[in-house]
């Protein structure tokens, strides 16, 4: 089973890395569980991704609390919602409140090599361009 982080809307849990770790802790066979990190959900849930420094800090926290060994996928999207708003509103890459820095950073960080990345942006007309840009950012 793969658990996706949430934006924390309403009374939803799963927006803090500690929530994901607690769910994993409750699974007897750890080989059967993993996580998917959604960039919009992380941003809306209080993890800043707007600068390289904040990306380093956020994913160091992810490693410390959950661990990259559990990362099974990423959902890539910008956010119409504000930072730490706990509101899930996806946007096209670079068009929202996160910006493009995190996506460029993810494409260059070897820890994400081989991790499936799914584009979950809002405008199908530019998906091809967004994918081409992501590929151009690879190291």
UniProtKB/TrEMBL annotation:
Identification of the protein by name: Deoxyribonuclease IV
Annotated GO MF terms: deoxyribonuclease IV (phage-T4-induced) activity; DNA binding; DNA-(apurinic or apyrimidinic site) endonuclease activity; phosphoric diester hydrolase activity; zinc ion binding
EC primary class: hydrolase
Protein keywords: DNA damage, DNA repair, Hydrolase, Metal-binding, Zinc
Recorded superkingdom: Bacteria
SMART domains: AP2Ec
Keyword DNA repair: yes
Entry similarity comment: Belongs to the AP endonuclease 2 family.
Boundaries of every Xylose isomerase-like TIM barrel domain copy: 2-136
Isomerase found in the keyword field: no
Cofactor: Zn(2+)
EC number, UniProt record: 3.1.21.2
GO biological process, one term: base-excision repair
Organism: Streptomyces griseofuscus
InterPro entries: AP_endonuc_2, AP_endonuc_F2_Zn_BS, Xyl_isomerase-like_sf, Xyl_isomerase-like_TIM-brl
């Amino acid at each position: 089973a793969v658990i996706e982080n949430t934006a924390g809307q309403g009374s939803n849990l799963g927006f803090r890395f500690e929530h994901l770790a607690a769910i994993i802790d409750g699974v007897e066979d750890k080989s059967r569980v993993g996580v998917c990190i959604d960039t919009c959900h992380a941003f809306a849930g209080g993890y800043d991704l707007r600068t390289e420094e904040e990306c380093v800090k956020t994913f160091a926290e992810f490693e410390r609390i959950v661990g990259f060994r559990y990362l099974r996928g990423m959902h890539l999207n910008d956010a119409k919602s504000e930072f730490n708003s706990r509101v899930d509103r996806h946007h096209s890459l670079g068009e929202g409140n996160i910006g493009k820095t995190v996506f460029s950073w993810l494409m260059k960080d070897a820890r994400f090599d081989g991790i499936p990345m799914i584009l979950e942006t809002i405008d199908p007309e530019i998906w091809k361009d967004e994918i081409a840009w992501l590929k151009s950012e690879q190291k």
